[in-house]
Write a structure and sequence with these properties.
26% of the residues lie in helices and 28% in strands. It has two domains: 326 residues, 4-Layer Sandwich (Purple Acid Phosphatase, chain A, domain 2), CATH 3.60.21.10; 185 residues, 5'-Nucleotidase, C-terminal domain (5'-nucleotidase,  domain 2, Alpha-Beta Complex), CATH 3.90.780. The strands form nine sheets. The protein has a six-stranded mixed beta sheet with strand order 6-5-4-1-17-18, with helices on one face. Strands 8-9-11-14-16-15 form a six-stranded mixed beta sheet, with helices on one face. The chain is built from 14 helices and 30 strands. The chain is an alpha/beta fold and 536 residues long. The protein is globular. Bound molecules: zinc ion. Zinc ion binds next to loops.
């Protein structure tokens, strides 16, 4: 069989990220961002249209994103109406797929532990999805419920029972979907970093092995079953440079695999990827149901396959057609979420603004909640993770969700004092203080050179942090991964994933307070000009 996947359209991979943000900003519904020349639907050919999303993260409702210039984009209804239009006009059967991280990330989805998102995807008509790392966030028991609920399979070809070559019963490696006589074989796999991103109990007994090896194991089976096309869904991603080069786990794994796939959908990095590996298109369409990818596969009578990306399309809501059935599903869960999010968690004695110089009361409150939840000597909470302020008076679950929407998990570190002091020094950035702390009073001299501004740090029991002693420190998984430049947490003596979600720690802490809650008023970062190193 001759297989050819030469570009017949524009050199899509040369469009860089900056260009595309501009394109997305300018695009309207019905305007392809990227248009490829599509071979005519010849009588001696077979074709399939692949519509793909990735990293939906429960974003069933439209939202404003940094690239939309204040316009609403995304959501299940506008996605459904886009797909309905493609189904009417494609002239080929349409297969709808996701590269995973489907259901965790919004109030409407999290409150039902993903049930809302799976119902919406059922109504949209998805055919298959990869199991993403965040699919484990509610535990395997919930994941199995969601897999039973889904009208489409969730695929995990590289997820094994530890020490065996068998998959857990709920993780199918592949599926063959047939429509109008066109058979598409779909293999799904997920990032090998999954165990580091979720509660250890959720992934105990599981091994996340080579994606390339999983593709090489299953694609020959699909070919032996005589599928027309092979599509791979990889919940791993990458980044593309302006000059067109793309790198990352997904690209590496695809390059290491045998070249017998026709189209690859990636995810996890929430990026725009348009590339080719082994001649096959590799696509990723941002995240949050705010954009959608469309590709077209054509097999000619002589066996030649032409695989094209048609577009990555920004899903703006204005002017989009209605889709009453999907809208009704979202509306039902909105009502359910409204009731739940209105639950009063605590009463605040005064409003808590996001951040002000020298640390914030809100940041200290969150850091205190995390230190208590994990039982650590010290908590360090990055200000970038605090996304909203809180009003004074009664506050509800929805208010708190807006403050900490990322569902980060807390990591308990054993950290040498020298690294702890380095983390504190790093927190004194040029743009102001980057973090709030709990269990520490930090004294610093802004006139000292960088690297020597933190003069000393005193623990709750009055002892000074010593460089050669070891402390338990709680931070979130974003910071441990090097987020906000905190390289020093990667050098911790031990790192234990507690699985405690940051928002849950805050809710528990607030519920445990008697009477109106007063956030810690006293500064924990103190300017002390001329303080001796080590203070005392
Ligand atoms: Zn992911």
């Amino acid at each position: 069989m001759r297989r050819s996947r030469a570009w017949t359209g524009r050199a899509l991979h040369t469009l860089g990220a900056a260009t595309v943000y501009a394109l997305l900003g300018a695009a309207t519904v019905g305007t392809p961002l990227v248009a490829a020349a599509i071979p005519a639907h010849a009588t001696d050919s077979t074709c399939a249209v692949i519509v793909s999303t990735n990293d939906e993260h429960g974003s069933l409702q439209p939202s404003v994103y940094p690239w939309t210039a204040g316009r609403l984009a995304g959501g299940a209804e506008v996605l459904a109406s886009y797909i309905a239009r493609i189904r009417e006009t494609a002239g080929c059967p349409v297969f709808v797929v996701s590269a995973g991280d489907i259901m965790q990330g919004t109030l409407i989805s999290n409150l039902t532990r993903g049930r809302a998102t799976i119902d919406a995807m059922n109504a949209i008509g998805y055919d298959a999805a990869a199991i993403g790392n965040h699919e484990f966030d509610f535990g395997v028991r919930v994941l199995k419920e969601r897999i039973r609920q889904a009208h489409f399979p969730l695929l995990g070809a590289n997820i094994y029972l530890k020490g065996t070559d068998r998959h857990p019963s709920w993780a199918r490696p592949y599926v063959i979907v047939e429509k109008e006589g066109v058979r598409v074989g779909i293999v799904g796999a997920t990032t090998r970093s999954t165990p580091g991103t979720t509660h250890p109990d959720s992934v105990s007994g599981l091994a996340f092995r080579s994606i390339a090896a999983a593709l090489d194991r299953y694609i020959p089976r699909l070919r032996a079953e005589g599928v027309d096309f092979v599509v791979v869904l990889i919940h791993a991603g990458g980044f593309c440079e302006d000059d067109g080069g793309c790198t990352g786990e997904a690209l590496d794994e695809l390059a290491a695999a045998s070249p017998d796939f026709d189209y690859a959908v990636t995810g996890h990095t929430h990026t725009r990827i348009l590339d080719r590996v082994h001649g096959a298109p590799v696509i990723q369409s941002y995240a949050n149901m705010s954009a959608v990818g469309q590709g077209r596969l054509t097999r000619f009578g002589d066996g030649e396959v032409v695989a094209e990306v048609v577009e990555i399309h920004a899903l703006f809501t204005e002017g989009a057609a209605r889709h009453p059935e999907v809208a009704a599903v979202v509306r039902r869960y909105e009502e359910e979420a409204a009731a739940r999010s209105a639950e009063t968690i605590a009463t605040l004695s005064e409003p808590l603004p996001k951040v002000f110089a020298g640390g914030s009361r809100l940041g200290r409150l969150i850091a205190d909640a995390q230190r208590l939840a994990v039982g650590a000597d010290v908590a360090i909470m990055n200000n970038g993770g605090i996304r909203a302020e809180l009003p004074g008076g009664p506050i509800n679950y929805g208010d708190l969700f807006r403050v900490q929407p990322f569902q980060n998990t807390l990591i308990r570190l054993r950290l040498r004092g020298g690294l702890l002091l380095a983390a504190l020094e790093h927190s004194l950035s040029e743009r102001g203080l980057m973090a709030n702390v709990s269990g520490l009073i930090v004294e610093y001299d802004p006139d000292e050179p960088r690297g020597a501004r933190v003069r000393c740090a005193r623990l709750a029991d009055g002892r000074y942090v010593r460089r050669d002693s070891t402390y338990t420190v709680v931070v979130n998984n974003f910071m441990v991964a090097g987020g906000s430049g905190y390289w020093m947490f990667k050098e911790a003596t031990e790192a234990e994933q507690t699985g405690i979600v940051d928002l849950d720690a805050l809710v528990t802490f607030l519920k445990g307070q008697a009477g109106p809650v007063e956030a810690p008023p006293e500064a924990r970062w103190i300017v002390r000009a001329g303080a001796p190193a080590g203070c005392g």
